[in-house]
Design a protein that fits this description.
Radius of gyration: 20 Å
Distance between the termini: 51 Å
Structural class: mainly alpha
Helix content: over 70%
Number of strands: 0
Order of helices and strands: HHHHHHHHHH
Shape: globular
Largest sheet: none
Length: 263
């Protein structure tokens, strides 16, 4: 029994899980003490980078593992910086209005972030543990292409909305131009797509139960479409502009998530 427990503690996945959760708990302690959430998203992005880096260092560092590591690094740097600059500008994050002064509620936010980081990186962590030499193939290229399209959507959508909101003439208005004319949430479409791309490439080396790490992109999709992402923003939009005829037309004409496909 003791041997089994020691094997679990020594396992690559458990160590990455413990590191992810541990970092968030330290972040929670600081956040609760100062009653602030300003570094929450930045910490999450930094954890992605650290866990990916630690896992990559223990891999064979083949082409597939190297590319995946750089893709995650690029995504985390970009999104973490963007979200951190945004909260510095806005001053607060509405998600934390009821949690900021409640250590117990805040603890849930930070713990969930630790789980989110680990589960999202699960395909990459499994791939980095693989010692079989499998050449880069068509599935990898398709996965990386999907990641590229998703990353482009996310970056361009965030940039377009930032430029739109920075114009005083657009104060109180909603964006309908650029990628936002194709999807009401093009940044989220990009986020979901890029993680499915990462999984597809990683699956080139999977066997048996390892394919179940599809939980990673599926969780990202469900989190965005059912919990914290789209539902909250759609509700806020209806509350703010729901009586406007032009907003009702926007809702009718533009797909909620996938461009050109209404659901």
């Amino acid at each position: 029994m003791l041997g089994i427990i020691m094997n679990v503690f020594d396992s690559h996945l458990f160590q990455m899980f413990a590191t992810s959760i541990g970092i968030q708990w330290v972040g929670w302690a600081v956040s609760a003490f100062f009653h602030t959430e300003k570094f929450y998203d930045l910490t999450g992005s930094a954890t992605f980078i650290l866990i990916s880096h630690l896992s990559h260092n223990r891999s064979m560092m083949n082409t597939r593992q190297n590319v995946q590591s750089w893709l995650i690094f690029g995504w985390a740097c970009r999104l973490g910086t963007f979200l951190f600059m945004r909260i510095l500008k806005d001053g607060s994050d509405k998600r934390f209005d009821k949690a900021r002064d409640s250590p117990s509620v805040l603890f849930k936010f930070w713990t969930i972030q630790g789980l989110w980081v680990f589960i999202t990186l699960l395909p990459t962590l499994i791939q980095n543990s693989e010692r079989r030499i499998i050449p880069v193939g068509r599935r990898d290229y398709i996965g990386w292409a999907i990641w590229g399209v998703g990353f482009l959507f996310e970056v361009v959508a965030d940039m377009q909305k930032s430029i739109f909101k920075a114009d005083p003439a657009n104060d109180g208005k909603f964006i309908t131009s650029g990628l936002w004319s194709l999807s009401r949430h093009p940044n989220y479409f990009g986020e979901i797509s890029l993680w499915f791309g990462i999984y597809l490439s990683c699956s080139s080396v999977f066997r048996g139960a390892q394919y179940l790490s599809v939980l990673s992109p599926v969780m990202v999709m469900l989190l965005i479409t059912k919990l914290s992402g789209i539902p909250l923003l759609e509700a806020q939009g209806l509350k703010k502009w729901g009586t406007l005829a032009e907003y009702k037309k926007y809702l009718e004409d533009v797909p909620v998530l996938i461009p050109f496909i209404k659901t």
